[in-house]
Records
---
Amino acid sequence: MAVKIRLQRHGKKGKPFYWVVAADARSKRDGRYLEKLGTYNPNTNPATIDLNIDHAVQWLHNGAQPTDTARAILSYKGVLLKHHLDGGVRKGALTQEQADAKFVAWLEEKSGKVDAKKDNLSKAKADAKAKALAAEKAVNEKRANAAAEAEAAEKAEAEAAENAAAAEEVVTEAAAEEPAADEATEETQA
């Protein structure tokens, strides 16, 4: 029986979630499997991979062939490196302690890279949020300045209207006094 290490799709439409399984090559994609080795969630950034490394290595020792995507996942988690180092131990090129030390060093380096990527992503997200906040503050200031200018213009118009009304009152009072003065001159002439 040919065994494949492959992905079994779960999750909802548009939000895939995969199980990494060892299954008979003849079974359906989402059908029967021999053992569940872990999970893979591509919806997060970076992708979340939870994998039982020892069981995956055991399946590789027994001759299971990973699919292309499963091979990339196994390589990312170090399963293929551990399989390779175990082959060196079986051939006598390495001792088990040396192989374990190399694997642990690789895992530490890999976790450092993943943490750096997470830090860069969070820093980029914080920078984008700060830029959006600064842009929003600028828009709010412009809006407040425009409102203050409009309010000042309204006050100026109101003052101008009051001044015009006062000037009209002075003109009407002056016009009312002129006929009285004309009547007084007519009386003196008569």
Note: The first strand starts at residue 3 and ends at 12.
---
Amino acid sequence: MVFKPSIPKGTRDFGPMVMSRRNYIFDVIRTMFKRYGYMPIETPAMENLSTLLGKYGDEGDKLLFRILNSGDFLKGIDPGESLVADKLSGRISEKGLRYDLTVPFARYIVQNRHEITFPFKRYQIQPVWRADRPQKGRYREFYQCDADVIGSDSLLNEAELVSLVDDVFGELNINVEVKINNRKILSGIAEYIGHPDKLIPITIAIDKLDKIGLEEVTKELVDKGIPHAAIQKLQPVLFMEGNSREKLGKLSSLLDDSSIGRKGIEETNELFDYLDQMKLNLNWDLDLTLARGLNYYTGAIIEVEAVDVQIGSICGGGRYDDLTGVFGLEGISGIGISFGADRIYDVMMEKNLFPQKTYHTTQILFLNFGKKESAYCLPYLQELRMKNLSAELYPDADKIRKQLKYADNKQIPIVVMAGEKEIQQQLFSVKWMQSGDQKEIPSTGLIQVLEHYYQSINDIDIKL
């Protein structure tokens, strides 16, 4: 029986064309991160489960990929012992793949706090893993591109991240809208409906509105012990009409008795003042249904969606006041945002937004006519590479048709040929594949001609 290779569901292979497009996205995001003064770090793919567990809520914990301990991981367990899956996993697994980049970043801050200058601005572009059900725009392995400021509670940081979003998606030519809310406002709303102790189940439920709809969210709230009367009081608040400032004005009256709710309104008004002053190109709005279910958010929360493609959030983040506290470093506030590179890729593919020159292929191919001819080409090949032009020599003296097909398949724009006649006359035959033009060029002028070609954008009809 022949083994048929496959990859796990929710993961993907990336060929050269796809990688070129993905790298284009990474390069744009990385360039903007640097422009805003963020510094790069990396953390391990795996973390201790003690680092990860309890930071994402019960549902997030269920989506952690756990790694079996090395060696005989069942050693010490009584074969007759009855263990359910949750208890067994804790006995045979001590590590897990990272779920996001924020919690490992908090762990990094605590471990390296004596070498860090605060406020610390870092960016991180690495893959994360979630044991989720694969579907369009949702993968089990995917990249996050995070930027965080830690060690400052200034709302200028929130405004800067929205400005960063504006610049990134402006450069990528993606039309987006930004939704903004504040967890303190949500806490105030929970007090307003008489259930401040139910903030977490409330936020987890309303965070699913776009996915499962109002009816299912209502059912989940009931299952979590929230009475129908409280739900009926909640719904008009969540779906309040008006522009952002009008909603904040109405909330001021509703949440007048909630100190935390008033604080959230004050912070949101200050953030909106900064955004008004920045005169950004994107659209932003207060969305009271925005909850972002991660437990560590404590202040502003941000979510970005593509206007023209139904794919869900492509970027999001928020304020976390004491995430490092669980690791022993209390009182350190932070704000971060994460760009979902995989969903951004899907949006750009659907809207045909990648530039034509995204795919970086070989620019010049020397055909191989034999050992003597290859030896004639090698010095020029090396000189082109020294001038930062991508060039290669076909490795085998195969039929010319096969070598030209190779150039076609790789979209190589220029083919350089040197046979016995060219060697005798000290020249090269150069073929521009797109137009089919072919010219003989003296060997002393080859490098200059090819350099000129790449200095003249889209000019394939070079005048010698």
Note: Residues 457-464 have pLDDT under 50 and may be disordered.
---
Amino acid sequence: MTVQNYLFNNHLSEYLRSIGTPEHPELQRIRTETAAHRLGKMAIAPEQAAVMTWLARLTGAQSYLEIGVFTGYSSTAMALAMPEQARITCCDINVSFTDIARQNWQKAGVAHKMELLLQPALLSLNDLIAQNRSYDIALIDADKPPTPHYYERCLKLVRSGGIIAVDNVLLGGRVAQERADNAPEAVGILQAFNAALPHDARIIPLTLPVGDGLTLLMKK
């Protein structure tokens, strides 16, 4: 009986990747190029992308909403996994990063599936709600303090039975520690956000210890 997770070092992590679905060559390229960027750690982990694409295939998802695009690894992964007619809406505010994402979408042959909204994400989400848009899956992977606001809007945009994923819910383990006086604002916000999820009757939550923590929320 296993009562505790393994401590995953780099060797064991590489082994786990080797026995899963092989990473698409375009995703390998994006990951390698992004790793050279000074903010390369902002990209979603391959294991997290594998979970997201597995869920997309399992549920037959045809629409996907992403908050926080960076260089396009996660959006490209989802586009490659979803059917030709899939619709993917990406929200970001950084022109430099999303220019790289656009190039990656083109190289991967998935640019025709993408809709990029370049303005503060809360404004984009409000616009989508006003348009009565609906999505099968959403990923929140942007600036952390507004996470509860992104979540509430995603609850309006994701269909019943759909999935909302939230990245970086562990903040490198800081959420499980007593908050220091000089801790970033995001720590206290995510501590409160995480603590509230088990009591939220609108969703069924599950947090996976992959990457920096990936919470999956099924909307009832």
Note: The two ends are 32 Å apart (CA to CA).
